Task: inverse folding
């Protein structure tokens, strides 16, 4: 009995223990379940975010800047991926060692680098850029050393494989990939890509498992230019040779399709390499797009406008006699002298062929002020051509209300009006294509989409243009034509007009004996394929006239262009290969008389004053230096320290305005310019 | 203690503490027993194996797409990186190719090999056969000695 009782109570105790155990387990289960509910339901978003931050990383998806190609698909500008490098200074144990290592690999000044690292560490900065856009060699070397505190960041570098070829058209970038000049700037928005964003899921070893694109990257639009890189190179080399041969300062050459306005080549000299950033002390002219941004007085080339207007508004015809007299012309209050000698009575065609200034003035007087202004405007002068390049100048064509008594005479022969080379090329295209004014075109395709060509506008009657073509052909074919000796092409007919305009000196307010020598022409005459315009700036002497300075460059460019474009010859070889004379005939007849009174139209453009001063600035040859103006002149402060400048200025009693610090790099007015009473000299210092 | 227990009852086992429950062991000789065939048990066994296999397959079919997805993810991301690096490499090579084909370099190479542009009189157009029947492509460079 006792045994049975103990057994019963023993069974009860065992059941209780199991019950308690079960209850505890159940409570644990409830606890776990509750915790799960808390973690996975109530605090779901919080822990999901923490998990995401550990597993997911948002990375930028590169969108390269659009490439630029020439019309044959040759790349002119490309973006290549590179790395930029930063460090976490707080993780660097030994700054000296890190400085030496980074300095050697990345070719950095170790002293500067050490001070930067020290400063960042002292200020508890966890991020410091060390070098942007490493080259491949530097990247490989730095990655090979596996430094914990070094971080690489994907970046992009703009490369111009043609170096200087078409640099003024393609332009350059700055601050990474912001368009700074040329097409890079004009089409910056289209060329720029939009960087995308991607969430990358990674495992514990930082290997990608999955990715989700938040915003897709959009690469920049690829642009295909109308430029032919081969022809561009020919134009650049021929222009450079022409400028150097004449000891000139600068030059421009343009090759254009007369029917569509497509610019096949646009060369400027001096030029620059867009792969290299601007350097202190480099020639500022090198980065000027002279052909588009810098207007000049065209000189005799403008007689084409005068004669075109005459053909349309008067009864003058190519064989109409023009009595140019013995080389002098009396105007109200003034007598004009032909620059070379009198031509007597000559035909209108001969006025153009010999480039008679008096003849042009007489014809201009027949045309009248209103018609002359109307036709100059109609042919695009005084207004921008719309070429898609930055800082295009419209040139200067004064409104009729501001014309003086001799303005008509001056404009008739290309003075008192300023034009850009692109405007002149367009004028030549009008003559070549039958009287249609085209808009210069530089973009052939955007992406794969052809850029539409704006329909040209008729500005001259076809019969007028046919007559003008014939007269312009006389400039080249007529043995007494100004361009007969230099602009004739072997196997091809050509027509054109020379121009030689004196350069105005804005400091002395007089024309100098330096010239802007130009030639515009087209070939072949019957079915023109090309318009070529050449301008050589700041030539001197008889060899600096339009025919002798610009004519040979035209010849070289046109010959090569016709060969490249496979244009069939239109005249027998033996006719064109007749012996040529090197002596320009007649050389000075081409020169537009400058001092007709009044000031130059170039003075009205304030931005051109400095450039004019640069153009008339004497160079090494002392024989070519014009007589120095009387009175005090501006001293040369360039290269001096600020202390030296201030001392010299105070000793000479000159007022100076100082900008920047370091060494005097530039000054305005330029050294040697006449110093006016009370005038301040602005001096820019830089290190 | 053990001796006392053995004396008490040799088959009695050690009591569980505080329960008052005693277990006894008894040696049974079952060497002469023979297993009786049970076809139903074999069927049940195979049923259990089949059920386990089915469950395993269901589990595998549920899990395997996820595993495959993860493995494919790894491979996909690796391929994406490779693709991007190849694109980058191609761009570098494009620049290199463009540099090699630049007119400036071709011109210097041509000069080194004494090649020059043909004179106008040396060019014959295909549309206009020359008198002796020879043709030359207009833009093909010709070997001439530079003067």
Result:
């Amino acid at each position: 009995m006792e045994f049975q009782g103990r057994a019963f109570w023993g069974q009860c105790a065992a059941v209780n223990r199991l019950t308690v155990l079960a209850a505890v387990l159940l409570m644990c289960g409830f606890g776990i379940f509750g915790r799960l509910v808390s973690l996975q339901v109530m605090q779901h978003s919080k822990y999901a975010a923490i998990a995401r931050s550990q597993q997911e990383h948002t990375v930028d998806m590169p969108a390269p800047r659009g490439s630029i190609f020439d019309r044959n698909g040759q790349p002119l500008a490309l973006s290549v991926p590179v790395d930029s490098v930063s460090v976490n200074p707080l993780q660097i144990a030994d700054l000296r060692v890190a400085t030496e290592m980074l300095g050697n690999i990345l070719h950095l000044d170790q002293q500067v680098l050490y001070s930067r690292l020290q400063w960042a560490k002292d200020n508890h900065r966890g991020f410091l850029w060390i070098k942007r856009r490493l080259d491949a060699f530097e990247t490989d070397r730095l990655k090979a050393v596996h430094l914990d505190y070094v971080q690489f960041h994907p970046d992009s570098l703009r490369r111009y494989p043609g170096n200087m070829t078409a640099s003024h058209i393609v332009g350059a970038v700055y601050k990474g990939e912001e368009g700074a000049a040329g097409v890079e700037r004009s089409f910056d928005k289209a060329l720029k890509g939009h960087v995308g964003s991607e969430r990358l899921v990674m495992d514990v070893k930082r290997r990608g498992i999955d990715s989700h694109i938040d915003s897709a990257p959009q690469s920049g639009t690829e642009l295909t230019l109308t430029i032919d890189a081969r022809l561009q190179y020919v134009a650049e080399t021929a222009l450079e040779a022409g400028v150097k041969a004449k000891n000139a300062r600068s030059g421009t050459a343009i090759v254009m399709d007369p029917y569509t306005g497509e610019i096949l080549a646009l060369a400027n000299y001096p030029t620059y390499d867009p792969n290299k950033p601007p350097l202190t002390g480099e020639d500022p002219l090198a980065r000027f797009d002279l052909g588009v941004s810098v207007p000049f007085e065209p000189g005799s080339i403008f007689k084409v406008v005068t004669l075109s207007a005459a053909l349309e508004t008067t009864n003058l015809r190519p064989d109409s006699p023009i009595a140019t007299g013995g080389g002098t012309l009396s105007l109200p209050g003034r007598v004009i002298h032909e620059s070379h000698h009198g031509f007597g009575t000559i035909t209108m065609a001969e006025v153009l062929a010999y480039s008679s200034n008096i003849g042009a003035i007489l014809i201009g007087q027949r045309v009248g002020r209103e018609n002359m202004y109307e036709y100059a405007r109609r042919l695009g002068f005084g207004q921008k051509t719309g070429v898609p390049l930055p800082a295009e100048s419209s040139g200067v064509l004064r409104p009729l209300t501001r014309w003086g008594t001799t303005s008509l005479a001056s404009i008739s022969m290309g003075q008192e009006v300023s034009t850009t080379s692109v405007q002149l090329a367009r004028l030549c295209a009008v003559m070549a294509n039958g009287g249609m004014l085209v808009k210069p075109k530089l973009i052939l395709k955007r992406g794969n989409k052809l850029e539409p060509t704006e329909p040209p506008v008729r500005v001259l009657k076809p019969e007028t243009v046919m007559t003008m073509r014939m007269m312009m052909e006389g400039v080249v074919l007529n043995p007494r034509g100004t361009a007969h000796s230099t602009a004739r092409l072997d196997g091809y007919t050509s027509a054109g007009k020379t121009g030689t305009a004196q350069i105005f000196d804005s400091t002395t307010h007089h024309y100098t004996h330096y010239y802007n020598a130009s030639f515009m022409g087209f070939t072949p005459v019957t079915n023109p394929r090309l318009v070529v315009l050449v301008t050589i700036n700041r030539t001197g002497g008889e060899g600096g006239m339009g025919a002798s300075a610009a004519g040979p460059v035209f010849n070289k460019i046109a010959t090569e262009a016709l060969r490249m474009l496979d244009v069939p010859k239109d005249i027998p070889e033996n006719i064109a290969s007749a012996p040529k004379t090197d002596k320009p005939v007649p050389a000075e007849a081409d020169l537009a008389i400058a001092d007709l009174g009044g000031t130059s139209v170039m003075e009205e453009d304030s931005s051109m004053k400095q450039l004019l001063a640069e153009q008339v600035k004497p160079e090494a040859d002392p024989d070519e230096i014009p007589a120095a103006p009387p009175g005090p002149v501006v001293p040369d402060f360039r290269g001096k320290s600020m202390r030296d400048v201030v001392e010299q200025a105070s000793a000479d009693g000159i007022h100076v305005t100082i900008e920047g610090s370091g060494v005097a790099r530039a000054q305005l007015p330029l050294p040697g310019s006449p110093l006016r009473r009370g005038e301040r000299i602005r001096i820019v210092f830089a290190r | 203690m053990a001796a006392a227990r053995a004396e008490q009852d040799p088959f009695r086992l050690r009591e569980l503490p505080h329960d008052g429950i005693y277990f006894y062991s008894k040696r049974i000789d079952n060497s002469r027993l023979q297993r009786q065939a049970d076809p139903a048990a074999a069927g049940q066994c195979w049923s259990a194996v089949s059920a386990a296999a089915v469950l395993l397959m269901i589990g595998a079919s549920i899990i395997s797409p996820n595993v495959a997805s993860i493995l494919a993810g790894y491979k996909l991301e690796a391929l994406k990186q490779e693709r991007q690096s190849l694109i980058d490499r191609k761009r570098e090579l494009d620049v290199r190719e463009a540099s090699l084909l630049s007119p400036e370099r071709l011109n210097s190479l041509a000069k080194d090999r004494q090649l020059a542009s043909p004179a106008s009189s040396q060019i014959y157009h295909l549309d206009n056969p020359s008198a002796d029947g020879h043709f030359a492509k207009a833009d093909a460079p010709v070997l001439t000695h530079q003067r």
Observations:
- Residues 67 and 78 of chain A are 5 Å apart (CA to CA).
